[in-house]
Amino acid sequence: MSLNRLAPLTPNAWLRYDVIGRMMPPHVADVLEIGCGQGALGARLSARYRYLGLEPDPESFAVAEARFAELGGGQVRNASVADLAPEERFDLVCAFEVLEHIEDDQGALTQWAEHVRPGGWLLLSVPAHARRYAAADELVGHFRRYDPEQLAALVAKLGFENVNVREYGAPLGYLLEYGRNAVARHRLAKVTDASMEQRSGASGRLLQPANPAASAAARYGTAPFRLLQRTLPHGPGVVLRAQLPGSGA
């Protein structure tokens, strides 16, 4: 079964994946993904690396577990970072669209950094620019969005070096965000009693391609925009890569 069919990405995730692929650090053997959702991106990483994904939401975990079982590679746990043993460390710790869901983001980054080997890497994606916080952010349980320099400062406080931050998504990402905000304004009235934790848990299940045709449309429809965004230094999302000092991973 093809990865495209087994693990579909949303249009915005295709834009993000293009940037993540070009920012993957060298000499990585094992990868920890925090908040792997339904495992779509993790399935792709597991084809290249020894992979462990953590997903606390039981519904998303069940989908991810089935996908990895079909792939026959990688591992996923219905767990959080707090459940890892202290000695479990990785060449690369990554979290895509996760940090903005956590109220104590500096505390979370400190915890994540404990599982990066000396010389290893941290790779993050978050929604960009505090001024763009809107209905879609509120709906899915975002505490904030990040200005690129703000995100870089957070990881620098933990001693990470070689910090590389890239915005992505223009121009299609702006249109997709506009659509998400329009949908969210209608849905917010129905989730007024939902906690931030509940909204965050459900966020990974929103807007997922429902069938192979939708998955293929997302992949091929975004192809020219993935190339175009490489020429544009801005967008509604940001990816950060940083290295922990020490011996090579």
TrEMBL record:
<protein>
    <submittedName>
        <fullName>Class I SAM-dependent methyltransferase</fullName>
    </submittedName>
</protein>
<keyword id="KW-0489">Methyltransferase</keyword>
<keyword id="KW-0808">Transferase</keyword>
<dbReference type="InterPro" id="IPR029063">
    <property type="entry name" value="SAM-dependent_MTases_sf"/>
</dbReference>
<dbReference type="Pfam" id="PF13489">
    <property type="entry name" value="Methyltransf_23"/>
</dbReference>
<dbReference type="GO" id="GO:0008168">
    <property type="term" value="F:methyltransferase activity"/>
</dbReference>
<dbReference type="GO" id="GO:0032259">
    <property type="term" value="P:methylation"/>
</dbReference>
